[in-house]
Amino acid sequence: MGNRDPxxxxxxxxxxxxxxxSAVMTAGLSSCADTAxxxxxxxxxxxxxxxxxxxxxTYSERTGLPVVVEQTGSGGGHKLFCSxxxxxxxxxxxxxxxxxxxxxxxxxxxxxxVEVRLxxxxxxxxxxxxxxxxxxxxxxxxxxxxxELPRSPTDCTPVPNPYRQWSDIxxxxxxxxxxxxxxxxxxxxxxxxxxxxxxxxxxxxPCLALMERDTPNTFRARVHDLREDGHWIDxxxxxxxxxxxxxxxxxxxxxxxxxxxxxNSDKVQGIPIASVAPTPDTIRNGAYPVxxxxxxxxxxxxxxxxxxxxxxxxxxxxxxxxYLESIGLIPLSAEERxxxxxRLIEAAQxx
Length: 351
Prior knowledge:
By secondary structure, this protein is of the alpha/beta class. The chain is about 40% helix and about 20% strand. It contains 15 helices and eleven strands. It has helices at about 10-30, 50-65, 75-80, 100-105, 140-145, 165-170, 190-200, 205-215, 215-225, 240-250, 260, 280-285, 305-310, 315-320, 335-350; strands at about 40-45, 65-70, 90-95, 115-130, 150, 155-160, 180, 230-235, 255, 270, 290-300. The strands form two sheets. Strands 1, 2, 3, 4, 7, 8, 9, 10 and 11 form a nine-stranded mixed sheet that branches. Helix 2 (about 50-65) links the parallel strand 1 and strand 2.
């Protein structure tokens, strides 16, 4: 995935432009009944917020249509979006919509709902610039952050996490208190972190690996349970505030999306996981171990919001070298992005 994507043929580009023109016309017609002063309203992920805000600014400048983007967290965004509130047109999410959330949308008459992948993201651990390097992996993270650990590799009897300093886990690590600031339970970033890093670390215990095989729901409930004794601190949905906390707390680590690391490299530095540093290339090619997709969910008949979504998935915005890549988005391949646009166009034509 590190190579530049092949371009579609001239005929394919011509046909695709025709589809887009038709879709934009359809979206515009469907919005005629809307009140002119009503903005497109997008809620959801704090990770995606900078990208959505930039797209909103660009779309508004081009069309004169107002777009309001709000940070609610992925979980909060799905809850609002699926509530049936007609003023909410779309939600962004740093994880896939859960079956229970989809059921809530159906129950409240929200739909059909179109799922659009926007790009890739790495979940990074970082600390203040100028601090010593740390060598972490999934096993160390699980030992550091799980609320309870197995009594032994073969005995899964839970015991309270005894580790207070990083050096308690591995003598080669700093002799500093484990203090990790991360997203709250409503955050898609937290969901993705526990589903990748924490689950991977837990599998290093043979008894937990057997638990995952035999009773996967029990395994997930056990492994996703983070410490509540002050070593993991819920930092809220404002990642910019978290950056400021890390800059003023040199011994602390933070968990957040790659774009905030990319945009704040003068304040914080990424920590390699399993000896792989978080970079656009390592996230895109899958070498970095904590990677997730980013999503937009939009109601099929959302009028002007469909135009916003088409702007989001345009080559100028989310293609390679697009204006979103410049602020930290890891783009989809050309084929994947075009497929997302086709999905939107078909939805616009169906209204």
